[in-house]
From TrEMBL:
Database matches in PANTHER family: 6-PHOSPHO-BETA-GLUCOSIDASE ASCB-RELATED, GLYCOSYL HYDROLASE
InterPro entries from the UniProt entry: GH (IPR017853), GH_1_N_CS (IPR033132), Glyco_hydro_1 (IPR001360), Glyco_hydro_1_AS (IPR018120)
Record's protein name: Glycoside hydrolase family 1 protein
Hydrolase listed as a keyword: yes
Length: 479
């Protein structure tokens, strides 16, 4: 197809996360959170994923770019005005939990933090931009990690419920679209990011991760219940990192292996949050991996009674799997290493680029769940060059976004109900995976560099003008 029919009211926009752009990590009464102790640079994931990570700042050894971000905390009005100039219908963002409850377990929220997000939402609404708000996005209060053990501890459910209810009551007239936990299904691979703990050994990783996930499932359902009660007409979704899993070849051994990998990674969390129950295949998986989830009497009833309204997802890559593989065959750049796919090119950071995989993934999700879908993260991390005349000619990013938007258009023609698309990150920010500024995703350039230097001046990239035209034509003009 060449003429794509995106629905009327399609939510075009961009996406960011509080911990990656706000900065001001000790201002406004904010408490410390996980992102504040994550070092910058390519060592980041190696450091935080090792057993025994101490959740402390070591400025003699590492840098901490999240402390400053891109100073969105002070420059939000300028940035939202730029989003509006692009024509954004929506802005997917997150709230820093520790700005609202600095330690996480307080009975009363921090008014200064609440007022900050009031100003953000007012600025969005002034420009006709609908906020889509992630309640928990990789920034758990540090106190809940160090004193409670993160989501392994069932007590955290009540802290999250109090936090969510506080948000719904405060912003009920400003925000109608909510997401519970960012990329919830990534937790088993890197529990520190979303579950707030570092397993002591590899042997306990799956057991502790699925126990923590169960607590999040209950918390998510309680948030759905509260959201619907407090904000009539609101919609609240889950958020998955979605990777279609391909078999390396047609060998049935590899096909079965790919199927099992896809079931566990892509569907356990979706089934619980959308269908309201653990899938049938999970029983065998839990048995074979010695996973025994402790549940309270009404947990499954709560999960069943309060499923999410829609599925939001991040899509960056597909994944190719083979039962037996050598080190040479691994796709080392991918978030979750599989086999190198010989049919795909890769980004500067080794992430395989597969627009067709997005169409496949949207079809798979909609066929399975029959609820609206929302692509809330998709983008290209790349090195950008500022030319002598000040221009940034990021045609590679335009090509990437164009092909993925075309894939969405094809999926809609396939019958998929798609709510919207928010490009990640619509303005340059600190990379989650590497803690770098040089890994740029934005349609807006920020003069900030890995060594901390820069003026934080904003510049429009070539992709800014291209995306503006895409939005104004509702996806009709993509060239």
């Amino acid at each position: 197809m060449t003429n794509y029919q995106f629905p009327e009211g399609f939510l075009w926009g961009g996406a960011t996360a509080a911990n990656q752009l706000e900065g001001a990590y000790l201002e406004g009464g904010k408490g410390m959170n996980l992102a504040d102790v994550m070092p910058g640079g390519k060592v980041r994931l190696n450091v935080i994923s090792k057993p025994g990570f101490d959740f402390k700042i070591d400025k003699e050894t590492y840098t901490y770019p999240n402390h400053d971000g891109i100073d969105f905390y002070h420059r939000y009005a300028e940035d939202i005005a730029l989003f509006a100039e692009m024509g954004f219908k929506t802005y997917r963002m997150s709230i820093a939990w520790s700005r609202i409850f600095p330690k996480g377990d307080e009975l009363e929220p921090n008014e200064e933090g609440l007022a900050f997000y009031d100003r953000i939402f007012d600025e969005c609404l002034k420009h006709g931009i609908e906020p889509v708000v992630t309640i928990s996005h990789y920034e758990m209060p540090l106190y809940l990690i160090t004193e409670y053990g993160g989501w392994r501890n069932r007590e955290v459910i009540s802290f999250f419920e109090r936090y969510a209810i506080t948000l719904f009551n405060r912003y009920k007239n400003k925000v109608k679209y909510w997401l519970t936990f960012n990329e919830i299904n990534g937790a088993t691979h890197l529990p520190i990011m979303s579950l707030g703990f570092s397993p002591a050994t590899e042997d306990v990783r799956l057991q502790e991760s699925f126990q923590g996930l169960h607590h999040q499932f209950v918390a998510s359902s309680l948030a759905v219940k509260a959201c619907h009660e407090i904000i009539p007409g609101s919609q609240i979704g889950c958020m998955l990192i979605y990777m279609p899993v391909y078999a390396y070849d047609c060998n049935p051994v590899n096909v079965l292996h790919a199927l099992k990998e896809e079931q566990v990674f892509n569907y356990i969390c979706g089934d619980v949050q959308v269908r309201g129950e653990y899938p049938a295949f999970s029983k065998r998986y839990f048995k074979e991996n010695d996973i025994n989830i402790e549940m309270q009497q009404n947990d499954l009833e709560t999960i069943k009674q309060y499923p999410v309204d829609f599925i939001s997802l991040s899509y960056y890559m597909s994944r190719t799997e083979k039962k037996e593989l050598t080190e040479e065959e691994k796709a080392s750049g991918n978030l979750i290493a599989g086999v190198k796919n010989p049919f795909l090119k890769a980004s500067d950071w080794g992430w395989e680029i597969d627009p067709t995989g997005l169409r496949i993934g949207l079809n798979q999700l909609y066929d399975r769940y029959r609820v609206p879908l929302f692509v809330v993260e998709n983008g290209l991390g790349a090195y950008d060059t500022v030319e002598e005349d000040g221009s940034i000619n990021d045609d590679y990013r335009i090509d990437y976004l164009r092909e993925h938007i075309k894939a969405m258009g094809e999926a809609i023609e396939d019958g998929v109900e798609l709510m919207g698309y928010t490009a990640w990150g619509c303005i340059d920010l600190v990379s989650m995976s590497t803690g770098e500024m040089s890994k740029r995703y934005g349609l807006i350039y920020v003069d900030k560099h890995d060594d901390g230097s820069g003026t934080v001046e904003r510049k429009k990239k070539k992709s800014f003008y291209w995306y503006k035209n895409v939005i104004s034509t509702n996806g009709q003009e993509l060239e």
